Amino acid sequence: MDKIVETLTNLWNQTMFMNDQIDWRNYVMILVAFVFLYLAIAHDFEPLLLVPIAFGMLLANIYPDIMAKTAADGSGGGLFQYFYKLDEWSILPSIIFMGVGAMTDFGPLIANPKSFLMGAAAQFGIFAAYFMAIAMGFNGEEAASISIIGGADGPTSIFLATKLGCTTLLGPIAVAAYSYMSLVPIIQPPIMRALTTEHERTIRMTQLRPVSKVEKILFPIVVTVVVCMILPTTAPLIGMLMLGNLFRECGVVHQLQETASNALMYIVVILLGTSVGATTTGSNFLNVTTLKIVVLGLIAFAVGTAAGVLLGKIMCAVTHGKINPLIGSAGVSAVPMAARVSQKVGAEYDPSNFLLMHAMGPNVAGVIGTAVVAGTFMAIFGIGA
């Protein structure tokens, strides 16, 4: 009988309820994980991102040792800590950029180079949030890492935070960035409607010109050479993005393009999502600093969206109504979700209006623009690639 009691006591002592690392904050984060899972599964909000992030969050708050740090000799770490090392080393964000390039058609941007302007305008939110973060007491590196959330680009947010040495803020930054990427269909439409008239929302844009195969092949090569020569710190992101796109367009490496855009991409998303989610234990996440990061990220994203739309309005006026301002909202980096939102909002006022391909131009420009901004911050703070 004593043996049975001892066995049951040992089992009870091993449960979550007896773990001295667990407090009320972990239970709150478990509820947050359930909310994320609900949004991903029931409402299809970027499930490829939210499901692994939410599940990593769930596991880390039930069993914090799954993120236990490794010893000096590299042994003894929790499972997700080894995944997380790939984030810290900037491996996973760079590979994701390669996958995005392999999946994305840059043709709309090549066909309409003016799209670059709207992609650039959307980066205004990053700089606005940067100065606000400085005013709220963050140092320069922290402010830069937080403000990049405004690009709605999770991999770039992780990349910049690790390069600038802000690993203690990486969890909140990454979760905020990926959350806002997932919530693009909720956050952007009210801003788009508030800044445009009903007439502007129904503007039909002319069909994009055909883009030749030679142009599509030359584009990633030229962009890599020009951007990386001027700003070498962008090489890990811009280089991998353009390499993936070259796989897609050159026509002679179908196996590499298929691997980069499918199997490899999804493996990396699993590793990155679960490890990022696992950084959000209650003690790390539920504090005033995290609240500031979440608020600043939302401001950056909203200002970026507004700036893209406002520049779209200016371009609409300059071109005498040839550009629908709604596509300016796609200047953030959430590919292709932001472009789909432009299409959806436009279709609400004219179901036969097709804006998706036009919006892909600013969307791709936004990905490039956010990577360039990240490289600029690295250059400002003297950080090499």
SS element count, helices:
21
Q: Major sheet: size, sense and barrel closure?
A: none
Whole-angstrom Rg = 22 Å
Poorly predicted ranges: none
- Give average pLDDT, whole number: 90
Q: End-to-end distance, in Å?
A: 64 Å
Shape descriptor reads globular
Structural class given helices, strands, pairing?
mainly alpha
What percent of residues are in strands?
under 5%
Helices and strands in order, then pairings?
Layout: H1 2-13, H2 24-42, H3 47-62, H4 79-88, H5 91-103, H6 107-111, H7 115-121, H8 124-135, H9 140-147, H10 154-163, H11 170-182, H12 184-195, H13 198-201, H14 213-230, H15 235-250, H16 254-261, H17 263-278, H18 282-285, H19 288-318, H20 337-349, H21 356-380
Helix pairs in contact: 2-3, 3-11, 3-17, 4-17, 5-10, 5-15, 5-16, 5-17, 7-19, 7-21, 8-9, 8-19, 9-10, 10-11, 10-21, 11-19, 12-19, 12-20, 14-15, 15-16, 15-21, 16-17, 20-21
Q: Can you walk through the features of this model?
A:
This protein has 385 residues and is mostly helical. Helix content is 71%, strand content 0%. The protein is built from 21 helices and no strands.
